[in-house]
Design a protein that fits this description.
The structure is a homodimer of 375-residue chains.
Chain A lengths: L8 E8 L10 H16 L8 E5 L7 H6 L9 E5 L4 H14 L5 E9 L8 H4 L10 H15 L3 H15 L13 H6 L2 E3 L2 E2 L8 E10 H6 L7 E9 L12 H13 L8 E3 L5 H10 L8 H6 L16 H4 L7 H14 L12 E8 L3 E8 L1
Parallel strand pairs in A: 2-3, 2-4, 9-10
Antiparallel strand pairs in A: 1-7, 4-7, 5-6, 8-11, 10-11
Helix pairs in contact in A: 3-13, 6-10
Chain lengths: 375, 375
């Protein structure tokens, strides 16, 4: 059971902006737009929100109250949280705990990102925009090199992840990139850190994403259908990369906690969202999430298992590679996508009969969140 | 009752560094030092800590995990929170909720601040160090001017707050300033924003402060005595200054919530810590916390009510004015002081028979936290 001490929590509304580069918009603009979209989706008014958790990175210790003041000063507690790439997941978790603990019935989890201070088109192209806040491509290129040596992965295995996720992103109107890419385009793109070309790297962007969480009891009273609940919320901090390829990893440990909470295993999932900031990560996470043994992840991309239509689709909205990664909102974009899929409203990228989905995010400093939502 | 949905939570250990200007030390150094002091105080080991909340301002989205990794990678969730001046209070509240909700039994709340990137000795002297992160003296000088016009306060009323709090700070070995100041020194100090001289303004500094929270049940099992519990945790966001002097304020609303949770009123408190970043604030808070009617606060400082030995001492450790205000840890320094007083270990600044204390913090962006601790 999901944190059995807590009462049931539902996600009753989601909203996001289309991620992209918006030099004319402020961080506040993105946060307001996402919040209003989530309120409309939940058919609630701002006055119905009793608490807010706002995740961002390097936007300052006043960003939450400053953003939500634009919608209205209702006096609710507004907590800023920050865990690098996973800041949106952090906001989701704290809102979940507040409701689960009975402190309130309806809370907002909001993520805001504004990364276009630097105009480099892809994270890998320019290195970290803000100190150590963004995992540079070089770290993951080394990972890829080691995997190729140890397991016989090829650069094309990673390229296939980019092709798949861009194909998914092209089916998502909120995706930063709306066009599919071919394997030749991925191979031939500008090299960032061998074997990762720029099309192996998440883009830089801006945006907002929000979720409205509600006690399951109140959601039922409101007549919300389908009722989507939080089946697991696991969070650990550790080195997120182990020194050797086969030692236990942070994602491994965190996902095991989540599976236990949900009473479900990896193959029970209908879809999975992950931190695919660099293509090689997705192959790694197939293994770390327990879908296959160490070193066997590449088979899943070869066999089409993780594309929409396959047995267990990953990154159905395009993932960080195509949907984008403005950092603050990314974890909540994963929730947005999972809710669309569990509602059956994902349109051309719908995973048939989806009833349970997993969202994994890592963040610099060594944090991992795994949330499981089910209907 | 304190958030009646939550189980009882105790504070079983506190630790802090002496606040000051330490150009040779990093933020991580301060965080580690405070954490180790709190662990020693609680007679616990690092492996006993099951979750951590880390409050800071503008130290980046990885500061918590990066700091605590220096003590050891135990895999626990480490959440960064940020609410400007109130970031330490935010960490305390989230740790309180996590334990109250039953997610864990023992958690660390840590605050870290490193403000000496700018070497200006007092916050008011240099304006905000990081964008809008620090309320500049001018805002509070305008407040003072209006109070003098409306209520007949004098500049000396505010100067007396500085004298009192520096006198308290001189009794606290962890205070940034260890020397009392005379009213003539306060009057004659360099003018920042009339009527506030530099001795009306909080100093700039660095430091760390930590509290270890524990379920009351487990604390009893551990034999902790005296048992100090959280009697209230209230948190609101709004404009923290009202447009007119007599309209309701954020501190007023937040403290009323806290009093209701604690089943106690302002005059039931034995001591109070507040956000006295500028002297005029303390007079304001006498009124906003409900000790007296609007406009009558200055009488309390004249009559010595709020000094140690008076009926209800404020800022017993020196407050932001003398103990210091490195932002991230300040809210937890208030908890540190309250715990010393409730234990009866405050030495020459001990408030006789103290059994209940209030900690109020505001933060830029418009946030207010009020915590009440009792033994």
């Amino acid at each position: 059971m999901a944190n059995a001490q807590l009462r049931g929590v539902a996600v009753i509304g989601v909203g996001m902006t289309r991620f992209g580069q918006y030099p004319e918009k402020s961080a506040v603009d993105h946060g307001v737009e996402a919040t209003l979209a989530a309120l409309a989706d939940a058919r609630l008014e701002w006055k119905d929100i009793q608490a807010a958790y706002v995740g961002s990175m390097n936007l300052g210790g006043t960003i939450g109250p400053m953003t939500l003041a634009e919608i209205g000063l209702t006096g609710i507690p507004i907590m800023n949280v920050e865990n690098a790439s996973a800041s949106g997941s952090a906001a989701f978790r704290e809102a979940y705990i507040a409701i689960g603990a009975g402190l309130c019935d309806v809370a907002l989890a909001l993520g805001i990102g504004k990364m276009t201070a630097s105009q480099a088109p892809r994270a890998g192209a320019a290195g970290p925009p803000h100190g150590d806040s963004f995992p540079p491509a070089a770290v993951f290129a080394m990972r890829a090199q080691r995997r190729m040596f140890e397991y016989g992965d090829t650069a094309d295995h990673y390229a296939k992840v980019s092709v798949k996720n861009h194909r998914h992103g092209a089916l998502n109107p909120f995706s930063q990139f709306q066009e599919p890419v071919t394997i030749d385009e991925v191979r031939g793109a500008r090299m960032i850190a061998d074997p990762l070309t720029v099309l192996h790297c998440t883009p830089r962007g801006d945006g907002g994403a929000a979720a409205i969480l509600c006690s399951a009891e109140k959601a039922r009273a409101l007549g919300v259908s389908p009722l989507i609940t939080v089946a697991a919320s696991a969070f650990r901090s550790e080195l997120y990369r182990s020194p050797t390829l086969d030692s236990p990893t942070l994602t491994e440990a965190t996902s095991r906690e989540a599976y236990e909470q949900a009473g479900a295993g990896p193959w029970d999932m209908d879809l999975v969202q992950i931190h695919d900031a660099f293509t090689v990560e997705e192959i790694d996470y197939y293994e770390e999430l327990g879908l296959c043994a160490r070193g066997e992840g590449a088979k899943l991309i070869d066999e089409g298992v993780t594309e929409i239509g396959g047995k267990l689709p990953f990154s159905t909205d395009g993932g960080l590679l195509a949907r984008g990664h403005p950092v603050g909102p990314t974890g909540l974009a994963q929730v947005w996508e999972t809710v669309q899929q569990l509602r059956g409203t994902a349109g051309p990228r719908q995973v048939g009969g989806a009833s349970i989905g997993l969202c994994q995010m890592i963040g610099a400093g060594g944090v991992c969140f795994v949330h499981i939502l089910k209907r």
